[in-house]
Structure formats: structure tokens, C-alpha cells
Amino acid sequence: MRRPLIALLVSSVLTGLAGNAHAGVPPRHYSPGPASPALRSLVGALGGRADDATAVRWAYLRKLDTHLQDLATASLAGQSVSAVARREGVTVRGGAAQVDVYVNGDIDSAAAQLRALGMHVDAVSRVAPGRIVEGALPVTALTNAAGLAATRAVISVFGGTDATTSQGDAAHHGPQARALGPTGVGVPVGVISNSINRAGSGISASQTSGDLPGPASVPPGSVTVIRDGPLGSSDEGRAMSEIIFDEAPGVRSMFFSTGGGGPASKAQSISDLTAAGVKVIADDVFYLVEPMFQDGVVAQAVDAAKAAGVAYFASAGNRARQSWQGTYSPMPDPRAVSPDTNDFGGGDAVQTIGSFSAGQPVELALQWDEPYGGATTELAVDWYVGGVYNSTDDLDNIGTGLPLEDATITMPSSSTLGIAIRRKAGARLPFLKYIAFAPGIGPFTIVEHATNSGTINPDAGSANGALTVAASNWSTPATPETYSSRGPAFRLFDKFGNRLAGVELRQKPDVDAADAVATSLPPPFNPFAGTSAATPSDAGIGVLLRAANATMPVDELYAILKNPANTIDCTLTLGVPDSDCGFGFDLADKAVQQALDTTPPVIGSSVNPPAPNGPHGWYTVPVSVNWTLADAESPVVDPVGCANPTNVTSEGTIPLTCTAVSAGGTSSRSVTVKHDQTAPTNIKFKGISAKHFDPTKLPKASKLRCTATDAGSGVIGCKVSGFKKGPGKHKLKGTATNDAGLTRTRTITYVVDVIGGLKVKSHFSLSAIATSGLPISLDVAKGAKVNAKLIGTLASAGAAKRLVIGNTNKRFKKAGRFKFRVPLSSTGRHVIADQALTKITLTVTGKAHGKSTTKKKTFRVA
Description:
Residues about 1-10 and about 20-30 have low confidence and may be disordered. The protein is built from 18 helices and 47 strands. The protein is an alpha+beta fold. Helix 11 packs parallel to helix 12 and helix 17 (about 765-770) runs antiparallel to helix 18. A hairpin with a 4-residue loop joins strand 39 and strand 40 (about 745-750). A seven-stranded parallel β-sheet has the order 8-9-7-10-12-23-26, sandwiched between helices. Strands 14, 15, 16, 18, 19 and 21 form a six-stranded antiparallel β-sheet that branches. Strands 1, 2, 3, 4 and 5 form a five-stranded antiparallel β-sheet that branches.
């Protein structure tokens, strides 16, 4: 059953992304479109005309979401702000609304400006995708905050906790696990929830009853509160802490920091707990406004905590499959207020979600596949009660850059509830996903056009660094509660908002744990139901694993808890992992047994081909190494350099090392491969070059050398061959060989002339030439036949004439340098006598062995 669900998700997402590989660009002159009723009312409360709400002067008010617009209107009109806050689901205390202010520019300057407006700043997030100032902003200052140039958006903070010795301890085999030795001693533990010391007698009551470590413990223990929730909170964090202490009674140091207040505050609590040195964190707070398609500030904080050595246990959520997803399909808007609206199927513009009682709050968090801070599509959500339009949630998505509509409604009457999703601006057909949340009631199935998609908490629960926990009643392990959020989760962007090459599926939930357990707190925490209870149940096992083996990495701890040998398989979807229970319901004793492993992994290796094919142990063909990793006592994790196959792509003597970890420690194995598939290069000749040589000027054969380079196995020799002294064109070959036996040859061509080195006395008299001829010296090859001619160029009254005025032939048996004279003919002597010459050209041609060479010299006659 698991594979079709994953396949369905991939198909759904990929279909939704078809044709949307590039996000659209907002129009150059972007118009935010018609004003929502909330905006029109706010403009009227500020003294303007509601019909002028689209005017530029009121554009800044669109930075407020519609819930805050209604709050601001109530405040300006002297109406009950608390009544509006209850209706809209906004947290307002002491006249201040809990908000996230997304800012541009210098975030410290923006925070200072907001403080000047009376905002109590709880946290600041400086990381992408959201640069947020978070805290309580006076309702009277909402419009002023929107008017700040640094403000991009002001968003209501919607979130909560996934709503108590516990029965889960026995279901998880906690007593058997502790019988093996570990009890939690030495492991500092962190908890993130709404509060821990705000209800009843608080922490002291749990310490007095022995349900939390305290001064009376033997040995003494403590609970440190870094930051607590506001007065009136329910102390769900105390109930969670008691569950952990039931399973790990040796814990002496617990820390708490609230996850309430917003994503930035929660991220700060994660950082604070990590800095305090905790080794395990249990977290049940969620924010549906955190990005569903990329890692937001909370998910990044979880990953950072895990990288720092913290085992992070996050609740999956309590929303069953209350999610719909699909590609926006345009159809005419029946209300004619937008260019188009989404067709949920068969021309249905309004999707019925379900039926709800009067006064029931319902939240719907809608997001689409555009990066946070880079939205190019403007959508609005219309609520329909009993089939009749009721209200609209409409954030200025393009103006704020947030691809988000966090829509809420409090049912005005008991009736059906439906939604329409309208596209107000933008050219894309985005992929949409919403998660519906109705606190205080059981799970429901979306009535129309249901896709039954995953509902894992998009912040911590969807983080790669978290172990995400589903819930099963302690009495029926591995039968997930109907409300437990199903998976999987997925990502379409990296944390910076860059679209990924494909869908990154994340197997969530990871594991299953017990809920419906007892705590010392009053109902609803006795019994304590939901993934908020299951998460500390599994975190308690994590504490025992930490106590059993303090040095094993978080990846090993997670691997032990996800090992099917240590879990009960989900009864609904057999086979692991699945989207209901993950890898199954954890059994602490089996997990601890593996954590107590004292022997590291055994690593084996094999080389392919098994033996070198070249000399001296060298491979001259593609070569790879396969590794085997085995540990009979615990899972093997974090392999580095252990890919199968590990292909050797570089050349030389290559050391390859595979390192892997189990609960028993770290092992390494190294293999050295001598690999060279490239013959020597860069062959150069020494002592000779590609040129013409006089027959007597050739280098000696003993002086000829060649060199080469080889980065792999090195050059072991370079030989020169083909050297010849005879006249003519010759090819000289240089052959380089490396240690792997590979050779490469380079040739150059040189020419041995038949004659060369022609020299003539630079000063001579014509009378001497006429008497005894022209003296010359010449290099000649062995057996050369040489003809030397003197050609005179005459000046006459007519055209210039050329005459042979001297000629001689010589034959040389030996090679060497010789001197001889070129005698003049009688014609030549007459011409010289007549002083009719302008120049004389000496042409010497030598022939030998079928080769010939000609040399010339010309002399001007004054």
C-alpha cells in the first residue's frame, strides 16, 4: 500500500508542476485588484471612502492580513477587539496581537522602528526564506506598522500544540530496557511546547509528586525554564516532560523553552536549548504558516540542532489526511470579482470541506509552489457557509511576496463549510496545497474532491533533521490513531527558494509511539492523547539510547529507532516504511540492546577487475571498488567513501577509504589502487629539431634524447629512433613509456640537404674571376654530384638579358667541406671585359641518392 501512495503523490506534484518550470514574472505595473471587504471596512474606519480602497494611498494597508485588518477596524471603531480576535482566531493579550512582521532592509533598524510603535519583540529571524521580527504588536499600532517602509507584510501568528508512571512506558518495553542498565543518567533533555510552569502549582507540583526531577530527588535534579509561555497557558510541556521522566527516571537535568509566539520564537528556543547542552529535544508545537514547499526558519533550526548532536523528536500532527492538493484549473468566477477561480473538478468552483457546529473555528493554510518572498501569483480564499458566500481571506501575495493564505473562520451557525480559491493576478497555474485544522474536534474527511494528502507539520515535523513521531494508543501499538497526521512530506525548493530539479520526497512520519497515557496533570492531560503525547514517549526511548551510548551520532540513534528489528510494524499498512506509522512502533529494550553494541562495523572491499592488467601492479582499464558494511549488533550509518561501486576516475596511486559508524564505533578500511589509463604526453626532442641540416652539420646520434610527462604512473623511458644521415627528408620518432606500460609516440621531420654552407669571398674583382674563375666553398654529401653555374644579367639598350657566363661539374666521393672554382666561359670573359654586367647569380645544385638541393647567391656589379 505504501508504494501506490508515494506514486500518487509524485504523480500529483509532477502533474501540478507541468508547464510551470519557470515562475511567472509579476506585471510591470502590478495592480493588487479589488479590495476585500476587510480592507474596505478598514479604509472606512480610517476616514476614507470604502469605494476608494483600491487607491494607491491605501495600498500599504494590504500588508496586513485580513484578520489584522478586521482587528484594526474594530479598534478604530471602538468595537470589542477581543470578540473579533476570538472570531478570527488571532492571539491578542493586553491589547497586543501576536504577529510576524516580514521586513526589507536592515532588520535591526526595522525592529527598532517596531519597538518605537510599542511592539514587544520576542524574536528576530535573519535567515531565508523569512526575515522576520516577531512579537506582540499593539492593535492600535497595526496600521502604523504597515506604513513603515521596512515592512513587507504583517501576518497573524497561528499555531498551537498537537493536543497525559504513563502506560506508554510499558507498551514501549521501558522496564525491560532499563533492566539492561541505562536510565537516562547524564543526559540533559529539552522540551518545546506551550508552557511548563503556568498552570496549577506548576513544576513544583510535579517535582513533589516525583513526576519530574527536583531538589528532593536522589540525587537532586532540576528543571530549568529558559522561556515560558504566557500566563494562562495549559502546561502541556510539563505533561510532556513527565512522560519522558517516566521512561528515563535517571534524568537529572531538564530544560524547557516555549515554542509559542511564532516560528522565529520557536527557532530561537531550539537554538537556546542546543546552546544549553541538551542531547534530546521533544517538540509538539506547529505553525501551518511555515513553508510547505521549502525549509523555513524552524526546519533550518532543527537541522542545525541535529548537526550539533541533538536528537530532535517532532510531532507529526493531529490532522489525519485533512489536506487537498492539485494544480490550479481556471474557470469563470461565479462571483465575477476575479478573472477566474479554481475548478475543483467537473466545473465545481466551491469545494465542500465538511459540516461544523456553530462557534467552531476552522483554519485553512493554503500555499502554492512559489518561493517565500518571491510570490508571482495572487490568490484569495472565499468562505461559503451553507452554500452562501460568507467572507474572504486575501493577503496581498505579490506585494508581500508570500505564497500564503492562512484563512480562518469561526462558524456563524451549524452548517456546511466550503471554499473557493480565486486567482486575482499572475499568469501561472500553480500547484496548490492546503491543510485544514479544526481544533477541539476529531478528524474529518474532506467531503468533496478529496485527495487525502499528507498533513505532516510543515515546520519541525517535515525537517530532515527531525525524527517525526506518529501516535498509536498505548493499548493498541502500531495501530495509528485516526487523527495522527499522515505523510509523506515533500519539498520543491531549497531553503533559498531555488526550485529543485525534482520533487524531494521525505518519509514522514519516521516512527510511531504511544499516546492516551497518564500524567499528574488534570484533563486533558490525563489521559494525554495525540502526537504531543507520542512525541515525548519516543523521546524517552531516545534518552535511554543516549544514556546507553553517549558517543554514537544522531544518525545512529535514528537508525536504531527506525530499524524494523526494533519496531512493531504498522497494522494498517504492512511493510516499512509507510505513511501511517513510518518504520513502526518503537520497542525500547530492543533499541537499547543495539545501542549497547561495543564492536564497530566490519568493512570489506573488492576491486573490479580483481587483478591489475598492466605491469608493476597498474590498472590501465576502468577500475572500481565495492564495499561491504556489516554489523550484526546495530545499524551501520554515515558511510563516507563507501559508494558501490566507487569508480576510480583519477590516475596515480589512489588511496580509497570507506568509513562507517555503528553504535559500536567507527571503522575504516583503505584500498590503494594504481590506476593509469593515459599514455605519456608532452614528448619533446633534445639535440635535434624539425629543420634543414647541412650534410656536415648533423648532430651525433649519441646526443639525441626525448623527454615526456605522465601524471599517473610516471615516465620510465623515452627512446629516439629513425635517425638517418643521408640526404633527404627523414622522420625521427620519440617513444615514451610509463610505468603502467602505456606508450605514446611523437614524430618530427628533418631534412638533410645534399649541399649546404655555400660561401663566396665577399670581395673579389671581375678581372680575377675572368682569369681564374669564382672561388667558393661548399658542404657536400657523400657521392654528391654538384653543378655550379654563374649567370650574368646584362644591361643593354634593349631588354635585360641573362647569360650563363660560367659553369662547372664536380663529383665528391666523400662528404665534407670543399673549395673549388667556377671558371668563366669565353662569353663570360668578353662580357666582363665589356663591363656590361649588372649582377651575377651563383646557382649551385647538388644531387645524391635521388635527392637534390639548390643554393643561390647574387652579387651586384657596380
